[in-house]
Amino acid sequence: MSRFRIGLTGGIGSGKTTVANLFAKQGITLVDADIIARQVVEPGSPGLSAIVTRHGQEMLLPDASLDRRKLRGLVFNHPDEREWLNALLHPLIRQEMLKQLQQATSPYVILVVPLLFENGLDSLVNQTVLVDIPSALQITRTSQRDDVDEAQVQSIINSQMSREDKLARADYVIDNQGDLVQLEHQVMQLHKQFLEQAKLSPDND
C-alpha cells in the first residue's frame, strides 16, 4: 500500500455519492468502482470485446457502446451468464482499482464501492466508512430518485448484506438521516481524523 486507504460504502439511496463528493471537495482522491465498472467495458476495451465474442453484435448500441439494459436482462435471467460476466469483469475492475489507488497523490485516498463488504474489497483498505440510513428511507429516496417501484428497491436491498451486518463490520458510520449541514459536519470530523491517521501511517511516504 502506498497511500492510507479508506473504503466508503452504503446501500442504495444512502447518499454514498454525496458523501464521496464532500471528501473530494477537500482535495481527496476518489477511486469509484461504479465508474471503473463502466470504463472496463468502453468501446475498444478487452472487456467489451469478450462480451461481443460471447453474445454477438446485438449486445452493442448503434454507437458501438455496450447495451447495458440488454446485458442486464440476459444475466438477470441466466445465473450461469452472470457468473461468466463476473469472472470476466471483477479481475479487470480490481486491477484498475489498484492502479488508481497506487496513483493517488492526496494524503489519503477513498475507494468508493457499493458492495465493499460483499465482494471482500475491504481487504484493500485500512479503514471502512458506512453511509447509513434506515431501509424505509432507502426505499423512499431511491423510488423517488430513480422513478422505480418500491418492491424493486426492496428486492435490491434484500440481495445485499443486511444493514446490521454492515454496521457491525464498518469502522466508522455516517448517519445520513439529517440535512446536508449535519452530513458535512460528520464528513469534516472524519476528514480531520483520516488526515491524522495518514500522517502516522507507515504506508505514506
TrEMBL record:
Its main location: cytoplasm. It catalyses: 3'-dephospho-CoA + ATP = ADP + CoA + H(+). Pathway: Cofactor biosynthesis; coenzyme A biosynthesis; CoA from (R)-pantothenate: step 5/5. SUPFAM superfamilies: P-loop containing nucleoside triphosphate hydrolases. Its EC number is 2.7.1.24. It comes from the Bacteria. Pfam families: CoaE. Keywords: ATP-binding, Coenzyme A biosynthesis, Cytoplasm, Kinase, Nucleotide-binding, Transferase. The keyword Kinase applies. ATP binds at G13, S14, G15, K16, T17, T18. InterPro entries: Depp_CoAkinase, P-loop_NTPase. It is found in: Cytoplasm. The keyword Cytoplasm applies. PROSITE patterns: DPCK. PANTHER family: BIFUNCTIONAL COENZYME A SYNTHASE-RELATED, DEPHOSPHO-COA KINASE-RELATED. Belongs to the CoaE family. This is Dephospho-CoA kinase. The gene is coaE.
